[in-house]
Amino acid sequence: MIKALKRAHPLVVFTYFLGLLLLAPFSRHPWMTGVQMICLCLLYFYHNRSLKKFLPFIGLIVIVAVTNPLFVQRGRTILYADTHIRITKEALFYGIHYGCVLVNLLLVFSIFNQYIKKEQWIYVSGRFFPKLGVITSMAFGLIPRYQKHAKKILNTRKSLKKEQPVHRVMNTVSMETTWAFESSMDQLDSMNARGYGIGKRTHFHLFSWERKDWIHIVEIVILMILNLWAYTQYYSRFFFYPMIIWPVFQMRDLLWMLMMALQFLLPCVWKENFNVRN
Fold this sequence. Notes:
With 278 residues, the protein is mostly helical. The protein has helices at 2-6, 10-23, 30-47, 51-71, 89-115, 118-128, 130-160, 165-193, 211-235, 251-264, and strands at residues 78-81, 86-88.
């Protein structure tokens, strides 16, 4: 997957993640959410082979699952009740489900950050929205510089002067804010001197559109359309309240589960992953 997505055209990579973002946040059916979570966990652990980094996601599911029954007391199946609170099975399952949906969305963005680099984002956004591309490139450059500069100031003040941690952080924030404004003004003057905003500018890039990119983007679009159609036809009307009614599992459901898994794991089966010459 690393070879396939890193060597694909940025438009192909963005289209792939757009398909994930169209499906992951709006999932209403537990089967659909479960397939997405399995696929995204496989992709996540492919890059971050540490269970410790995944523990916050598990904690998020637990928090949503526990808090939802405390605030939402709908549902017929009562698990616990007293004079002040009533916990139902439906509210508990609803919390677990939407905790998983939230984790799926966070996993998509986590995997997104593994593949989308500054140059790819500027290339895609700059071609269609030039001003957005310039602002994004400035943000991508300023934020890491800001963090690095802040750490340097904190370490210097810690070694040269004894002061309370709160005062040290406040002074560092003040110095960093001044430095950020001065740096932005210098960058603005430099851009004005180079003619930004005057006429249409060109930019250098190493991305080229190849035949395999056509094939990949057609595959992504076809799977995206099929899964969105299946979602609107069969899986967008699952209800947790007032009671959970599980529909009978059919071969149609298995087919669409496999189609969704294929869309999420599609880059893993592209031949670029197995082409030794690349």
